[in-house]
Amino acid sequence: MYVIETNNLTKQFKNFTAVNNLDLKIEEGTIYGFLGPNGAGKTTTINMLTGLFKPTSGNIKICGEEVKFGEVKALKSIGFLPDVPEFYPWMNAYDFLKLSGELLGLTGKGLNEKIEALLELVGLKGNKKKIKGYSRGMKQRLGIAQALINEPKIIFLDEPTSALDPIGRREVLDIIYKLRGKVTVFFSTHILTDVERICDKVLILDKGNKIIESTIQELKNTYEANKINITLSTKDEMNTLYQSIKEKDWFVESELVEHKMTITTSDINKAQIEIPKIIYNENLHLQQFVTQEPTLEELFMQVVNTI
Description:
The chain is α/β, with parallel strands linked by helices. The protein contains ten helices and 14 strands.
């Protein structure tokens, strides 16, 4: 089942097109990475999907219900954490979630039990500190709990790990990962490593246009590896190998550290055939020969550079 569907979704601001004919079909339970540089149109897209912006053209369906600007019917199935969430600083986490639940019509024992479960999920159970004393990471975790208070089928997270320290990022990503299969997560970010760590599928957006949509593994299969890691017995042997390959038509560059070398090649298949032959003919002592799988960052640059 597709829980998010768009058709030719477009948003223009005067003469500027922020989002251009965006088509989405996102399956239930997916952690969906919405990836792009700052200014790519990610936040504008989220604002349309959540009914905050009126599209210039195109249509949106959330869980089969058409989203219309100013109407809330289709929005009952979503939770939303904006890029800069706001809280009542004099409240603690429990009080804030209780208020959020009551605004949605939740009351009684069921609401209290839900709050306790959410606070445990985000690592804030028993924390009596007022929100004004929270770190940014703690606020983001509370924001995720608030987005889940109505048991939505989809939560939209707009740059939830931006500006967090490494510990805060890890804590937020761990929470998101725990939601896999329980709720659909629309995860907007410009941080490539975060997408690679937790997302099932990724869409790359650039200048308002969908560049590519795929699983991480399919991307890696499409944009082949171009690096080989080699370890020989000595630095002298590695220098011998370097002199033998540096003029090859497939050789691009190398990074040499003692008796280890990373080779970048324009033809991975040719390099994989010729390098072992050279090692054998030169009587070199091979300790390691590994094709280096491309990172999402390298894939992103390959995709964007082919536009």
